[in-house]
Amino acid sequence: MSFGYNFKKITVVQPAKEFIDSTLSKTQRKTPTVIHKHLPISRIRGFYLRKVKYTQQNFHDRLEMMLTEFPRLEDIHPFYSDLMGVLYDRDHYKLALGQISTAKHLIDAVARDYARLLKFGDSLYRCKLLKTAALGRMCTIVKRQKANLEYLEEVRQHLSRLPSIDPTARTLLLAGFPNVGKSSLINLLTRADVEVQPYAFTTKSLYIGHMDYKYLKWQVIDTPGILDHELEERNTIEWQSVTALAHLKAAIVYIVDISEQCGTPIETQIALFKKIKPLFANKPVCVMLNKIDITPFEQLTPENQEMINDFLKTEGVKFYKTSNVSKEGIMDMRNAACDELLVQRVEAKLRGRQADNILNRVYVAQPKSRDEVDRPSVIPGNAPQLREEADARPKIRTERDIELELDDEYMLDLRKTWDLKNAEEAADAIPEIWEGKNITDFVDPDIMTKLAALEAEEEERAKSGFYDLGGEMDSDDEEIRDLAKVIRRKRKIRKLEERVDRAPIGRAALPRKNDKQLETNMQDLGLGEHIQRGRGNYKESIHRGRSVARKRMKHNDGDAMEVDGDSGSVTRSKSRNRSQSHVRGPARNQSGVRPEEVGKAEKLRKKAQKNINQDSRRGEADRRFLDKKPKHLFSGKRGNGTTDRR
Ligand SMILES: Nc1nc2c(ncn2[C@@H]2O[C@H](COP(=O)(O)OP(=O)(O)OP(=O)(O)O)[C@@H](O)[C@H]2O)c(=O)[nH]1
Ligand SMILES: [Mg+2]
C-alpha cells in the first residue's frame, strides 16, 4: 500500500497454548540447563534468575510486537479506522489490545517480584521453586489472554485480506440499493472481477478496481447495497458502504434501477438517496438511471416518470440514462464524474497552503522583446581578406601528419619537442631508480665481455664433443638400473619371507613406543640394541649378528665374519625390522630442534597449552545435544499427559 498502512505484514498471532509452549521451549533451549547444589549459591540464584528474566523478556517482546504491529485506530485514516470499527467492533478491538498491554505489564511485574525473591533463595531447591512459580504465573497470565489472542488472529487474517484502498487517491464510489447493477458497472469500468448475480447482497464487502482516465490512475470502489432504513438498524455489510461514503473524498455514482428489476420500487430508491445525501456533501454526485435496456424511460408508468422528473431537479447532481448491457451512457457518465472530481481536487489543492508554497518557489520566465529594432547578422568587411591571409600561411606539419606519412616506420619521439638549454642533452639516458637506488650503479661494466667469454667457452666445449658422451653412457645406465630392479625385488621378497617366519601366532606385535621405559633401561644395561621387538621377554632376547659385527668391525676385529658364519661376504642383521628402524627420523617432538633444546621446547609447548586447557574446561553452559533431535522439542502436540517435565 502506497499510503503507509501495511495491514498485510502483521505477524501471526499464536494461540495462547502455542505461545506459551514456544516461549518456554525457547527458555529451555537458550539458557543453561545444568546446575549443581554444591555450587556457590550466587551461581544457583543467577542460574534461575536468568531463566525467569529470559522468559519474561520473550513474553514481553512478543506482546510488544503485537501492540506495535496492530494499527491504533486513532493513528490511521478515519476511513480505515471506521471500517475496522465496523468490521471488528471498535470496543472489542481496543479492549483486546488494552488487555494485551496489561498482560505485558503484569508479566514484567511478576518477573520483577520473583527476581527480588530469588535474591533471598538459600538453596537450589528454593530457587527452583521460585523459578517454577514465576514461569507458572507468567503462563497463567498469557493463558487468560486466550480469547483475545484468538480474536486478534482473526482480525489479522481479515485485515490482510482488506482491499488496498488508498483514501487519498482519485476515486469513483458506486452506491445504491442491492441488485441495481453496481458490480456490473465496476466490471465494465475496470478489470476487477466482482461477482454479479441476479439476487440482492451478492457483494458483501468493499471491492476495488483500477482504471486509467486522462493518463491518471483512478480507483473504483464497489460497495455492498444499502437498504432504506435507519442508521441504527444497518448491518455490518451496509455499514461498510456507509463508511466508504462518509470518509472517501470520491465522486459518488448513485445507481437507480428504473426497471425495478432489482425488486425495489423507484420511490424507495429515491428516498434512500435523499436520506444518505448528507454523506455526499462537497462531493461530485452522478445518478445513473440504470437498466434502460429493459424499461426505457418512456415506458415507465406516468407516476414513476413524474417522480423521476421531480428527482431530476435535485441541485448539484447530474443524471444519466444508462445500461450496463448495451453500455449506453456509461462512458459519458464516467467521464463527467471524473472530470468533476478532478476540477474539485485541483481547486482544493489551490486553496491549500501547499500550492501557494509551490508558486512562491517556482518562477516561470516569460521572455519579452526589448524594442522593435530589426537586428540582422553582420559580416565584418575585412573577413574575406583575413581568410585569404590565413590560407596563404604555411601549414604546420603536425605529428599526426608525420605518422600518416611514415606509416609503419613512425616512432613517437616526445623528446624532440623538449626545450633544453643544451639541445644535445635531449638524448641523454635518464637514470632508472628502483627502491631509491640508481640501477646503473649496480650494473657490472664488464658484463658484456664476461658473457662473450662464457659463450666462447661453451662453443669450445661443444666443438670438443663434451656433450656427446651422454648417448653412449645410456646402455651402461640401463644395465645398472636392471640390476637395481632385481636387487630391490629380491629384498622385498626376503622381507616378506622373514615376516612370515617370525610372526608370533595369536599375539599382536607390541608397538615399540610402548616399551620406551624398558628400552631405556635396557640401554642403560648396555643391551639397547638387542631388544627383540614383538616378543614379550627381553631377558630371553637373542643377540643378533649385526651389532656385534659392527662393534668388532669398529675395532678391526677379524672374527666379525665368523659370527655370521653363514655368509662370507655380507654382514647382515638377523632382524630386518630392527635393521631398518634407524632409517626412521627422530621423534616428532625432537625433529628440527637442537638436542640440548628439546626440553625447553617441550616446556614451551606445555605452557602454550595451559591456557587453552583452562579455558576449554567444560562448564554448565556447555550444553550439548547428544541427541540431535530431542523428542520434547520436535514431537509436536502433546497429549493430555503431564507437562511437569519443564
Ligand atoms: N438488463 C440489465 N441487467 C443488468 C444491468 N446491470 C445489472 N444487471 C443485472 O442485475 C443483476 C444484479 O447486478 P449486480 O451488478 O450484481 O448488482 P449489485 O448492485 O452489485 O448487487 P449487490 O451486489 O447485491 O448489491 C445481475 O443479474 C445483472 O445481470 C443492466 O444495465 N441491464
Ligand atoms: Mg454487487
In words, what does this structure look like?
- Residues 615-628 have a biased composition (Basic and acidic residues).
- It is found in: Nucleus, Nucleolus.
- Residues 170-342 form the OBG-type G domain.
- Residues 582-592 have a biased composition (Polar residues).
- This protein has 22 helices and eight strands.
- Among the domains are: 16-161, Four Helix Bundle (Hemerythrin (Met), subunit A), CATH 1.20.120.1190; 171-352, Rossmann fold, CATH 3.40.50.300.
- The model is unreliable at 527-577 (pLDDT under 50).
- It has helices at 16-30, 41-69, 78-88, 90-118, 124-144, 146-160, 182-189, 236-247, 266-276, 302-312, 330-351, 353-361, 383-392, 399-406, 447-463, 469-502, 516-524, 545-554, 560-564, 576-581, 598-615, 631-634; strands at 171-176, 207-213, 216-222, 251-257, 285-290, 317-321, 433-434, 437-438.
- Helix 1 runs antiparallel to helix 2 (41-69), helix 2 runs parallel beside helix 5 (124-144) and helix 3 (78-88) runs antiparallel to helix 8.
- The chain is flat, with a radius of gyration of 52 Å.
- Helices cover 49% and strands 7% of the residues.
- It binds guanosine-5'-triphosphate and magnesium ion (MG).
- Residues 178-184, 196-198, 200-203, 224-225, 290-291, 293-294, 323-325 line the site of guanosine-5'-triphosphate.
